[in-house]
Amino acid sequence: MFALLAVGATSFGLVQAMTIPVLSALQHHYRTDLGTASWVLTTYLVSASVATPIIGRLGDSFGRKRCLVATLLLLSAGSALAALAPNIQLLLAARVVQGFAGGLMPLSFGIVRDTFPAERVARAVSVLSSLIAVGMAAGTVLGGPVIDLLGVPWLFWLPGLVTAVAAALVVRWLPRSEATGAARPGVVPPLLMALALVALLLGVTQAPRHGWTSPAILGLLAASVVLTAGWVRAELRARSPFIDMAMMRRRPIWAANLVALVLGGGMFASYAFSPQFMQTDPAGGFGLGATVTESGLMVLPTAVVFGFSGWLASLLEVRIGARATLILGSCLSAAGTFWFVLAHDRVWEVVVSFAVAGLGIGVAFAALAVVVVASVPPEQTGAASGMNTNIRNVGGAFGTALTASVLTATALTDGRSTEAGYLISFFVLGVLFLLAIPATLAIPRVGGAHRAGGVS
Q1: Do residues 221 and 77 lie in contact, with contact meaning Cβ atoms separated by under 8 Å?
Q2: What are the Cα distances from residue 163, in Å, to 15, 52, 175, 386?
Q3: What is the C-alpha to C-alpha distance for residues 4 and 438, in angstroms, rounded to an integer?
Q4: pLDDT tens digit sequence for 380-423
Q5: How far apart are CA 385 and CA 112, in angstroms?
Q6: Gene3D superfamilies from the xrefs (predicted)?
Q7: Which pLDDT tens digit goes with each residue over 17-49?
């Protein structure tokens, strides 16, 4: 059973990252400009951010197995549509459907909590959480070789086929998951939340392209503030809230969400821009001159360390607790990122620095998932973990936009990025990782029964 959940977690990260290193190839394949091609990333991020808390909450109310099968089928269908898309417009529509994969994680965490013995929950949640990062690293590695050997459509056929098989196996082998007793919410709160997220993420992701002070961006950001206020008010007045605001105000939850925000900012931005640095022609004074495939292979050690980071985190949580594990992961993430800032002229320097940062990211997110799951009752597992994943995506959008803005501001007159721009950007990302430490310290120590979950 755990293997089926692992396939879903890995697929979520894989679909998210496979397009990052091959945007230029997608641009040429669909005969569009790079700005339009970048929407392949934006549409998936927005869709996943909206779908994650909604599907997690629906799983709490209607049964997690049922929602997991539906989510896997949507991901498979979206992948097939993307593979068959004859133009960029239909590809973007397919990416919206693929974004429903965001619901896989809160559903998987809830299923683990429902079906695993209490002493195994923390380890299973840790490993599942780290598999998202494994999938993202694997996507960065595989994107180039898949296009070179099989062509662009197989960038989408492969995850589509895997998730279709996973859905069939879930139907056959996963135990039935009953609804947890969580009340079924109304329509208005999730609609307002979705609109607020769309406005926020569109504003943030497009700000580097149009300018942070452009009327369109300011309008989107202002709309997100108004819609968020309306969403919170609707939740507070609802008889059956979609997201329980009392839960969101609990110290372990808001502190964990703050950690997710800053860690997500560092993780997504480093994934998005490290391949560009590796592929930069060293004739300009920096970069490694790697091909898309070579830059993917440079990330392979990072994927390997991600593979055992969840297992390592589960061992550390037993010995030192989730808080200390989170802090250790944040420190490793910052250390690897600062190492890259100081030493990045040789391939081994870049490979080792990103592997160290990757190990830290994997450990930190594995411990973070344990904190969230251990801090809420079973009927709120999907909603709480869904919101945490969603806030991580929001942080990723801010981190990526901030990095893009720095690179744009420091670019040469012909638009080429500079070494200084990369170094400033990655220094800021290292600082983001460090900011997770005071946020982690705000998570209270929990004794008794919850200590088995690793929160201490």
Answers
A1: no
A2: 11, 17, 18, 20
A3: 36
A4: 888 888 899 889 888 988 888 888 889 888 988 877 889 999 99
A5: 12
A6: MFS general substrate transporter like domains, Multidrug resistance protein D
A7: 888 888 878 888 998 876 788 788 888 888 888
